Amino acid sequence: MTAVLGCTSRPWPGLIGALALAALLSANARAQGSLDQRIADLAQQIDTAMTQQRKTAIAVVEFSDLQGNVTDFGRFLAEELITRLHATRKFRVIERLLLNRIIAEQRLSLSGLVDPNSAKQLGRLLSVDAIASGTIAELAQSLRVNARLISTETGEIFAVAAVEIFKDESVMRLMASGAITASAASGAGTTVARRKTEFTDKMVELAFGYDPPLLRVRLVSVEVLEQGRLRINMLADNLCTCKLPFLLDSPEDKHWVIDQTGQPHPFREATGLSSVRGELNLGANSVPFSVIFGDIPPAIAKLNRVHIQVRGIHNREGNIDWQNINLR
Asked: Of 28, 83, 218, 320, which sees the most CB atoms within 10 A?
């Protein structure tokens, strides 16, 4: 037995090599720390810099790779930082969907690196004095996350933060999924459709108190977009021989969508009209327009109801109302 234990020969060299490699990778993972620990480190660095510079309100932009593309990992990082910074109760932190809506509406390029003019504009729109943005660089066995804190007063970087995160299976899944290209991330998120359902048989006629009806609205398609948005695309047809005024009513809470769970989703914006109060003078041709709603889950399968309130001739009210819209 003693002779066996003291044997100097090297059996199972493949197994020994594999064990050595596993030990090395395990040590590397421990050195890098867990994903949760590293994000906590990043949040703490941002917290310290904000406190030292006496900044009290912050917007966290989705992190991008070095080419400007945003993946689910970049969104996850932003969500985690928002949650952790808010939990300190020291800062006012802007909700990510609101930030993305402003980015889309203003056509700002705010993923990864933020230019001074965009930083100042966002500061004015959201009343924040700092923006956290950053990039994710993929190395052999880890990700290098570099964050920059930008003053919305000067547009200049006032602090930086960095962590290195070991590439485990969960991290790699997030890096590989939900990618949006740099052009889509630069304020064009509302034009990127995850799913589109077209319709040929749904329409409503509006009389505005007259007989016969003066206006026909046809449902053309419904698009589930990036950034939690839903776009309803329609065509307006003038059924009378005169110019017909047509506008979306205000306030904005007169337009809403209810999904299959009974959850309502709010109006965000209208396109084809200059604003929610923008007016079209309908002639003989069909006029396309769209209404966009927010806070939509990507897996939405059905709309129980779509309600859009409009005004027509002599400022009279009409309702565009559809029910039981199945989304393929």
From this structure: 320
Tokens linked to 52:
């030292």
Q: How far apart are CA 62 and CA 178, in angstroms?
A: 12
Q: Report which residue type is found at 220.
A: V
CATH value of 29-190 in 3.40.50.720, 3.40.50.10610, 1.10.8.60, 3.10.580.10:
3.40.50.10610
Sorted by sequence, the CB contacts under 8 Å of residue 194 that are 6+ apart come out as 224, 225, 226, 298
Residues of the chain under the 70 pLDDT cut: 1-33, 104-113, 177-194, 251, 272-286
pLDDT in tens, 176-209: 765 554 444 444 444 455 688 888 889 899 888 8
The CATH label, of 3.40.50, 1.10.287, 2.60.40, 3.30.70, for the domain at 193-326 is 2.60.40
* Cβ–Cβ < 8 Å for 141, 167: yes
Contact between 326 and 222 under an 8 Å Cβ cutoff? The reply is no
